[in-house]
């Protein structure tokens, strides 16, 4: 390390930091935490949608869903790889996920109760994720920025698919329409929480935001992104013919933005701290898969070593 | 003819029902790469199922689309072999199942590219490439597990042993298969046995595993809709949402 | 009123969904006597569910019969607590669930015998005797397992720990419950907590087990149709055959 | 033992042998084997029908089915108790079932593929069982005879319920009717096999029949019971409006019986030897339940012993 460019100069010039460059330990740790949390979210995020693979109501939707969940696994892999350029390895990060020392996005602690939830996740959750992630394509850390470009491209495809699925249902039977409305009712507020706590006021987060902004990791404040998301999403809800579950939602001519109601930050913190509808389920499912597969991973390593020995034996 | 449609339905149902079991692996695989790989294989199988179902619906005279065939038939009308409907076991069981099933499908589609039916031949041309990958994927894992650790060797062998009950049915000549072979549309399953078995044996040999292709009990009846107990539960899960919305015309 | 009907539907669904899980034990119990006992409890719960569903259908204005309510509602319309829908675990888990659920139901029906609604009171008079037996059955087993072997002690404790997540929801006052209590038809679930908890504690104390009635995560939402992931699969299984025969008028 | 009546005299007089009576070892062993096999059949027989408890298409039928399967468990218990009077115990018999050293009725190695199979088992399988069992109510061994009286009463109730269920469906939708016909097609021949191999000819059994008859254990020959069953069942099939799957089935005026076609004894022996559709499934299911429950049974014994010690302590 350290044979690359000068960190402060690179940041100042809004250029990319690469793994070979020297960087402050805080920067490294912040990135590891953020990229890992992002990777974990992709992996845990396979569960709520994966829950519907075997039950998708048409074969076309089943195919779309399998492909989407598969993409999430792929995103997890790019992101773990990006984190690995910072000198950690995937198994270490997974251990931290499994033991609760690293988090994943709280949105995945909500259950997918109906088929429409699959569409709603695409529309709202992926929609919010993209809003958060597009600025990360310009993140100061090169490997993360490049991973995000690919991720964002696929996510925006998923977002459109989710919307299209809901749109199809919204023109269907009364019960299909009701499913769409119900899903929107349940996912709207959690989606707004995805932008994190407010930047100011009593519910504000830990104040890491300023440092992340200075480092070019974060580009916009939480509330700014949240507002952009609301402004983008309200017209889409209108197109679906549904009502978003917020009586305070109305266009503010003066601001040129949609006003919206107060978010239940108590719920946000409660779910974040472990008492959400599915926290235990998600982690248990993930840990189970990991433990069930331990013997397989060990065998792969043993086989690989044997093969190498054999090759060396053949050479010698 | 009805017999040929029934034969093709068997191929479609094999792929469709296996998709269900493979789909259960997604988010439960030993490593993330494998979540992707099994998802990929599931997608390929689903693609084959959809192409075949759509074609069956057009030739059997009922005009049913892929969803009507997948979601609105009852257990007795499904034509898949027992192998693909068995419950998800451990990864060793799955790789044993995949090795046998892909070895069978490889021989099958290698022959069906010359089917007298252009549609079937076209489906086979696409499928053969996919199935070659599935077979290779299973092969790699059987080698790693068979020649990995003591534990993995034992579990891989247990998987092969457990699957043995279901092997003979793959190569059983049903009445429909005979009619399909006679018409030149299909091939006799029994004619695929030598190739598939030789391939599996080559893999188990290299993997230091015992080759086994029969057991005390032999699964039978899938091609005439006599399934094992787990099939009803699989269908309940697969069909429930679709059947719960009889008034929905599109999803 | 709709709220009262919704409250009664919650009681009905608790019994119906628990019947499903208990029914899975039949032929899988630790001994044949227990196959019979769990079958018996399932039958009692099913009887309560049927009586309540039939009554709900007559008072909610929809005129639905017990089967329409059991088989043709979707997951979001079910009103049972999460406790009863959880997957079958080991026998220790089942006895922990039964101890809590029967202790809750015992307090519930003991109060509902004085319901302002004669039908509800009549159902409660029959149910209270059954539930007393269920509670006693669970008690006997919790004592045996808690004070049996080292292994059974640990597994029984694990069962109680696993169930703790679902206890609070039993005693949660939903809006419908408040309305039902106000009308004199129902009782506030929160008013049942002391009795039920004291009973469970008396049993765990005697069984040398730790009493536990809360956990890091608290189940919630069942009474407004927000269920845990397993519920959809349970309903798929329960409803599949019925839903597969929309043209059948009788069975 | 041996302080009771004289075995040969009791048999001669067609009186009951009771456990306290002396009896030839062969008689004892034959009865143990037969009663155990009968008990095992009740226990294994819970599975094919139990398979439908969670899926019964109406709540009324669900209740009937649970009660029926529960009765089967009860029959198993009476029969194990009857066997225990001969000096064996239940756990020993269960071990023999689990290890394949004792059998259960082969009929339960067939799958229950549709809901109508539940009705067909009641109608045909319980029907055939009753035909076999009614004479056992007069069996020379008292405890077995008494158990059979109770069993037969309940079985005949189940048989009527099964028929009634099929009758209801046979007046229902086309698909319900087709289910009934399909179930009859699959269960008819296995039901005929329940009477055992023919008494004479190339497929005849091991020749134990004559001894069992002399001992008053068996009262009728296999073929005789089979004919009675066919004669009873054909008119019931007519009432259901279904066709039994035997082109050779026709009324023989001269014999005053229904003629029927040749039974596939190769299938019979194949299934008996382990290669039936569900042999492994049934035994594995049973063994799994038994093993899963071992810790519970052990705990019950340990608790019981502790309680006894405590009582003794209190007394001392």
Describe, in plain words, how this protein is organized in 3D.
The complex is a heterotetramer, with two copies of chain A (316 residues) and two copies of chain B (251 residues). In chain A, α2 packs antiparallel against α4, α6 (115-133) packs antiparallel against α7 and α6 (115-133) packs parallel to α8 (174-193). Chain A has helices spanning 7-12, 25-44, 46-50, 59-84, 90-98, 115-133, 142-170, 174-193, 208-214, 222-240, 265-272, 279-292, 294-315; strands at residues 250-252, 257-259. Chain A contains 13 helices and two strands. The longest helix of chain A is centred in the middle third of the chain and has 29 residues, at 142-170. Chain A is globular and about 75 Å long. By secondary structure, chain A is mostly helical. Chain B has 251 residues and is mainly α. Helix content of chain B is 67%, strand content 0%. Chain B has helices at residues 2-23, 32-59, 66-71, 82-85, 91-112, 118-146, 150-164, 167-170, 175-182, 193-206, 230-244. The longest helix of chain B is centred in the middle third of the chain and has 29 residues, at 118-146. The model of chain B has no long low-confidence stretch (mean pLDDT 97). Chains in contact: A-B, A-C, B-C, B-D, C-D. At the C-D interface, α1, α2, α3, α6 and α7 of C face α3, α4, α7, α12 and α13 of D.
Write a compact overview of the structure shown:
Chain A is mainly α.
Greatest chain-chain contact: A-B, 50 and 51 residues
How is the quaternary structure best described?
heterotetramer
Please state the average pLDDT score of chain A.
Answer: 94
- What's the total helix number of chain A? 13
Secondary structural class of chain B = mainly alpha
Form type of chain A: globular
Low-confidence stretches of chain A: none
**Low-confidence blocks of residues of chain B:** none
Radius of gyration based on Cα positions of chain A: 21 Å
Sheet with most strands: strand arrangement of chain A: 1-2
Radius of gyration of chain B: 17 Å
In sequence order, what are the helices and strands of chain B, one letter per element?
Answer: HHHHHHHHHHH
**How many DSSP helices of chain B?**
11
Class derived from helix and strand content of chain A: mainly alpha
Strand content of chain B: under 5%
Task: Determine the N-to-C terminus distance of chain B.
Answer: 32 Å
Query: What characterizes the major β-sheet of chain B?
Result: none
Q: What portion of residues of chain A is helical?
A: 55-70%
């Amino acid at each position: 390390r350290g044979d690359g460019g000068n960190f402060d100069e690179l940041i100042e010039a809004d250029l990319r930091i690469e793994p070979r460059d020297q960087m402050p330990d805080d920067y490294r740790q912040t990135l590891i935490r953020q990229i890992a949390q992002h990777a974990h979210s992709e992996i845990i995020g396979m569960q709520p949608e994966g829950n519907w693979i075997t039950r998708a109501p048409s074969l076309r939707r089943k195919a779309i869903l399998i492909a989407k969940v598969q993409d999430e696994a792929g995103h997890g892999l790019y992101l773990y790889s990006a984190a690995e350029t910072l000198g950690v390895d995937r198994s270490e990060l997974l251990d931290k996920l499994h033991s609760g020392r690293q988090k994943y996005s709280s949105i995945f602690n909500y259950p997918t109760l109906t088929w429409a939830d699959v569409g709603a996740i695409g529309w709202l959750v992926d929609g919010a994720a993209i809003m958060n992630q597009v600025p990360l394509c310009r993140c100061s850390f090169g490997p993360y920025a490049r991973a995000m470009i690919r991720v964002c491209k696929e996510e925006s495809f998923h977002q459109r698919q989710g919307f299209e699925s809901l749109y199809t249902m919204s023109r269907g039977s009364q019960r299909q329409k009701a499913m769409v409305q119900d899903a929107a009712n349940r996912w709207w507020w959690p989606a707004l929480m995805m932008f994190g706590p407010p930047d100011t006021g009593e519910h504000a987060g830990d104040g890491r935001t300023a440092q992340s902004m200075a480092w070019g990791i974060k580009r916009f404040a939480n509330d700014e992104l949240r507002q952009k998301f609301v402004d983008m999403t309200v017209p889409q809800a209108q197109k679906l013919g549904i009502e978003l579950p917020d009586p305070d939602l109305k266009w503010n001519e003066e601001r040129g933005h949609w006003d919206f109601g107060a978010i239940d930050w108590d719920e946000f913190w409660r779910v974040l701290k472990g008492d959400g509808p599915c926290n235990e389920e998600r982690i248990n499912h993930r840990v189970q898969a990991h433990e069930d597969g331990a013997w397989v991973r060990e065998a792969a390593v043993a086989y690989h070593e044997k093969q190498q020995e054999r090759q060396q034996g053949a050479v010698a | 003819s009805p017999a040929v449609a029934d034969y093709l339905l068997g191929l479609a149902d094999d792929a469709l029902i296996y998709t269900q079991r493979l789909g259960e692996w997604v988010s439960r695989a030993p490593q993330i790469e494998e979540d992707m790989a099994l998802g990929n294989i599931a997608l390929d199988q689903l693609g084959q199922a959809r192409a075949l179902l759509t074609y069956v619906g057009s030739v059997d005279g009922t005009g049913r689309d892929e969803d009507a065939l997948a979601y609105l038939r009852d257990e007795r009308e499904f034509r898949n072999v027992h192998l693909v409907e068995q419950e998800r076991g451990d990864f060793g069981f799955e790789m044993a199942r995949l090795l046998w099933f892909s070895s069978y499908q490889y021989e099958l589609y290698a022959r069906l590219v010359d089917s007298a039916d252009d549609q079937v031949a076209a489906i086979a041309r696409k499928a053969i490439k996919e199935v070659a990958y599935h077979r290779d994927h299973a092969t790699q894992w059987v080698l790693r597990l068979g020649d990995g650790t003591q534990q993995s060797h034992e579990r891989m062998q247990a998987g092969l042993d457990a699957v043995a009950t279901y092997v003979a049915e793959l190569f059983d000549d049903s009445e429909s298969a005979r009619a399909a072979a006679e018409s030149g549309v299909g091939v006799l399953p029994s004619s695929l046995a030598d190739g598939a078995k030789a391939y599996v044996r080559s893999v188990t040999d290299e993997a230091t595993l015992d080759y086994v292709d029969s057991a005390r009990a032999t699964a039978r009846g899938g091609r005439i809709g006599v399934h094992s107990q787990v099939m009803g539960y699989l269908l309940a899960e697969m069909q429930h949402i679709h059947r719960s919305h009889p008034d929905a015309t599109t999803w």
